[in-house]
Amino acid sequence: AKVSPNLNEPRHRFVPRPEETEKVRQLVGRAGPLVVLNPNTGDLLPIRMWPTERFVELGQRILEQNPNVTLVITGAPSEQAGAEEVCRRIGGNERVVSVAGRTTLRDVLVLYTIADVLVTNDSGPGHFASMTDIHNIVLFGPETPQLFGPLGEKRHVIWAELACSPCVSPYNHRFSPCSNNVCMQSITVDRVYREVASALAS
pLDDT tens, 67-80? Predict the structure, then answer.
């Protein structure tokens, strides 16, 4: 008989070497609770993106409500300028650091092993994080978490579940006629912050 996979348990566990952990700690530059924001400022599928201004507002609220937390902004090399702009707009001086364009994929996985919470659009990082113990908050809109959601017992999916969603799938080659991603705009900062606060408190 075919056994269904247990979605609460990742299939693989990433374990960094001590020197890798130290390298990433030096890159971040601060101890204490870490919240990682991955705003995908250069995503090739902008329909999947939560508005950048909401990532900025979320970051500001996290800093205001959690004085010991440091924010880490991540992204690919092509997203470095956008990530640094998000960092600048959030403010917070030394409590916000962008590592976009300064990390390898392995470095990002190491970061997830030392950080407490990740907030990301539906993209690769949400799946990579499933190999670690980080609280993994993934924002879904035009694709369905029922098929493409992250694994792991600390996964947190936020999805507005609008009638038009999902509109992107392998069956339409990830093309959608939608030019106004109301599904992502329907996800409020309040909703995401509640998930972050709950994760930090656990």
Answer: 999 999 999 999 99
